[in-house]
UniProtKB/TrEMBL annotation:
Belongs to the transketolase family. DXPS subfamily. GO terms for biological process: isopentenyl diphosphate biosynthetic process, methylerythritol 4-phosphate pathway; terpenoid biosynthetic process; thiamine biosynthetic process. Pathway: Metabolic intermediate biosynthesis; 1-deoxy-D-xylulose 5-phosphate biosynthesis; 1-deoxy-D-xylulose 5-phosphate from D-glyceraldehyde 3-phosphate and pyruvate: step 1/1. Mg(2+) binds at D144, N173. Gene3D superfamilies: 3.40.50.920, 3.40.50.970. InterPro entries: Dxylulose-5-P_synthase (IPR005477), THDP-binding (IPR029061), Transketo_C/PFOR_II (IPR009014), Transketolase-like_Pyr-bd (IPR005475), Transketolase_C (IPR033248), Transketolase_CS (IPR049557). This is 1-deoxy-D-xylulose-5-phosphate synthase. Its cofactor is thiamine diphosphate; Mg(2+). Keywords: Isoprene biosynthesis, Magnesium, Metal-binding, Thiamine biosynthesis, Thiamine pyrophosphate, Transferase. PROSITE patterns: TRANSKETOLASE_1 (PS00801).
Length: 605
């Protein structure tokens, strides 16, 4: 095996083309093997094996800068930059990250996890290079999906205006997570399928002088967009042809000024099942290599409940429109896309656009449900304030992957939404503890005339604890009263508190439990009544402590002489690992609720 002798990019540079091809296949086998066990981003990584090897073959990224957009496609890069032996720990607790992170390796130029950032990062590196009077290449690898995000064009515009040497490698596979949408996707499709390109490819063949071939492509193909931004456009280049890739990058390396190299790849390349269904294997759960079927047990998640309930509501109410930002499958807005395609909008990787589009739809009398992961919604904070809050428009935000998120690490933790939404006037913020409450809150949000945020985790949705409770904005649910301590929970962590309550009852402690349901407005009347009874309150939430639900409740109860203790995520960025393990580690568990609760009670005894 060639791979066993690859310990750094220097080893890659010593290989011949046929050896590089063999290495490509060995890397694919390793990626498929590890992802089938651990889960991870399969399709995107299989599509860039040759491209990554060619970049490392030509450039020296111990000195040059390789910037990955999103960086979920960096597995090959990790394997050949000293992390081959630890690759089996991918996305596991204390294992290597599924994304680029300079804390993990000096070969990782910057941390990444959100799309459309690479060109702005490249701009900073180019300016720094100039100010420090240094000499190195800056290469940004960006997918066509990331070109649906506005920040990419801000970076492109400024790089073109600056005019300094920078190399943008456009990895064009026609996909982001699902199929790409919008005018840019259509433009790139025209580029890679133009008659001129197809004719040249057939006419010249692989054995013709490649430099002449590339020159003719540049002459005949439409490349106005990038040229108008000030870039030299080269491509399309076959993204799985190592010879063509290496020849292209060798030529580009000697050019001055901004350059775009348009590389056409196939997402999921080399594994038939992922080629056929690249969206299914984009972010894959562990699966059986032979048939591609997931090995985890089937279960109903909060996302499933949301998607199915949205269709049920849409069948009765024609005002409902679903909006997502390149996440139809993850948010399960794919269900409404199938049933009512005319009432489904995918804006691409453009969260700001999603929020503002929802605002204008609400202004025109529709009921938009904007479904976005928590970590991505924070990218649209200005739009939440300026476009939704000021006019108090009734947009419903379905905040998926809220709280601790398994496997993806600090870039994807959804712990900030309660804090940043709580500060915005006019917003209602609710966190269902189970499937029953999510369904009820969706109906409540539909009838609301103010912005309404529903946050829920990527987790199993329990069927329901108390199905007779009547949901009302700002009203919580009393489970039990107590004279020594009152526990107030928000969201599914309720079930951890419920387990703790069993211990308290068996041990003879008088402990109350409230399911708050709403972070804003919270049930002041109910909570104050119970807090005055026990004089001690313990809040539990799956979010950042600073500015979160517990601290807001603490500020309110402090005027009444009630002692409040908060269990939440403290002032740090959570690491990667399984959600249940991280919740336990950070004290959001029945064991820690018991531990803290007993200490509070006995301190006052």
């Amino acid at each position: 095996m060639i791979l066993e002798n690859i310990n750094s990019p220097k080893d890659v540079k010593s290989l011949r083309i046929n050896e590089l091809k063999e290495l490509s296949e060995e890397i694919r086998e390793l990626i498929i093997d590890v992802v089938s066990k651990n889960g991870g981003h399969l399709s995107s990584n299989l599509g860039v094996v040759e491209l990554t090897l060619a970049l490392h073959y030509v450039f020296d990224f111990s000195r040059d800068k390789l910037i990955f957009d999103v960086s979920h496609q960096a597995y090959t890069h990790k394997i050949i930059t000293g992390r081959k032996d630890s690759f089996q720990t991918l996305r596991t607790f204390e294992g290597i990250s599924g994304y680029a992170n300079p804390l993990e390796s000096p070969y990782d130029a910057f941390i990444a996890g959100h799309a459309s950032t690479s060109l702005a990062l490249a701009l900073g590196f180019v300016i720094a290079r100039k100010l420090k009077n240094e000499d190195y290449d800056v290469v940004a690898l960006i997918g066509d999906g990331a070109l649906t995000g506005g920040e990419a064009y801000e970076g492109l515009n400024n790089l073109g205006h600056l005019g300094e040497k920078v190399i943008i490698v456009l990895n064009d596979n026609g996909m982001s997570i699902s199929r790409n949408v919008g005018a840019i996707s259509k433009y790139l499709a025209r580029l890679r399928t133009s008659k001129s390109y197809v004719m040249l490819k057939k006419m010249l063949g692989k054995n013709f002088a490649r430099k002449f071939k590339l020159a003719l492509k540049e002459l005949l193909l439409p490349n106005i967009l990038f040229e108008e931004f000030g870039f030299t456009y080269i491509g399309p280049v076959e993204g799985h042809d190592l010879t063509e890739l290496i020849d292209t990058f060798e030529r580009v390396k000697n050019l001055n000024g901004p350059v775009v190299v348009h590389v056409v790849t196939k997402k999921g390349y080399g594994y038939k099942l992922s080629e056929e269904k690249p969206d299914k294997f984009h972010s894959a759960e562990p699966f059986d290599f032979e048939n591609g079927k997931g090995v985890s047990k089937d279960h109903v998640t909060f996302s499933d409940v949301f998607g199915k309930t949205l269709v049920e509501l849409a069948e009765k109410d024609k005002r409902i429109v679903a909006i997502t930002a390149a996440m139809p499958d993850g948010t399960k807005t794919s269900y409404i896309r199938e049933r009512f395609p005319e009432r489904f909008i995918d804006v691409g990787i453009a969260e700001q656009c999603a929020v503002t589009t929802g605002a204008s739809l609400a202004k025109e009398g529709f009921k938009p449900f904007v479904a976005i992961y928590s970590t991505f919604l924070q990218r649209a904070l200005d739009q939440l304030i300026h476009d939704v809050s000021i006019l108090s428009l009734p947009v419903v935000f379905a905040i998926d992957r809220a709280g601790i998120v398994s496997d993806d690490g600090p870039t994807h933790q959804g712990i900030f939404d309660i804090a940043y939404l709580s500060m915005i006037p006019n917003f209602v913020i609710a966190a269902p503890k189970d499937a029953f409450e999510l369904k009820g809150l969706m109906s409540l949000a539909l009838d609301s005339d103010v912005p309404f945020a529903l946050r829920y985790p990527k987790d199993i949705a329990q069927d329901g604890f108390s199905k007779r409770f009547f949901l009302e904005i700002g009203k919580g649910e009393i489970i039990k009263s107590g004279t020594e301590l009152t526990i107030v929970t928000l969201g599914p962590v309720f079930y951890e508190a419920l387990k703790a309550l069993e211990y308290f009852e068996k041990s003879g402690y008088s402990v109350g439990l409230i399911n708050a349901i709403f972070a804003k407005p919270f049930d002041k009347e109910l909570i104050l009544k119970e807090a005055l009874r026990s004089k001690r309150v313990l809040t539990v939430e799956d979010g950042i402590k600073r500015g979160g639900f517990g601290e807001n409740l603490k500020a309110y109860l402090s005027d009444f002489g009630v002692e409040v203790t908060n269990i939440a995520i403290d002032d740090f960025m959570p690491e990667q690992g399984k959600r249940e393990d991280l919740l336990k580690k950070y004290g959001i568990s029945s064991e820690n609720i018991v531990k803290v609760g007993v200490r509070l009670i006995e301190k006052k005894a």
